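Entry 14. Structure prediction run on the chain below.
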Amino acid sequence: MQSINLQPLTANDFSPFGDVIQTDAAVPFPINNNTFERYHALGKVTLTPTPESFPIISIFRCSEATSLPYAIKLMEQHPLGSQAIIPWSNIPFIVVVAKNAEAVMQGNIRAFKSDGRQGINLSAGIWHMPLIAPQAGLEFIVVDREGAGKNLEELVLNPPLLILPMDSDQDKDSKRNRA
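Output returned:
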């Protein structure tokens, strides 16, 4: 089985696949009579326009915790619109992406770990692993497309791809095991 290592999620490294939704590098401006700061346009919602399609907001709740290493058996894409995934809880999560089906088949896949305060906005047509999280009950706000047309394609990975923890994660686990 082929494996892939996690790397920290950064705007620069993730840019070929979409946007990282975070406030770290953004410059806010005051709104609501100076009682709030607005971090504007952190991601761009895109969709193939039709009279029958529109952006929607959903909440995804993790029903089964996942730990690493983890075998990815399926990748998916949404060809007709972007998909933003924003953690509701301050818990890191993992996103695995590839530019196209050929990249998936050739193993040109990247795995990123959000720090728990970063969300992502996948560009239309970017292949990604279905969402996983380290704890059941974690919730994510998801902004994507609803409407006419097939906006979900799936690709079964055979053999599966194994996601390995980041070196820093393995160091933390080994320190816990020694304690």
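Residues 2-178 form a domain with the Jelly Rolls fold (CATH 2.60.120.480).
Filed with the rest of this week's runs.
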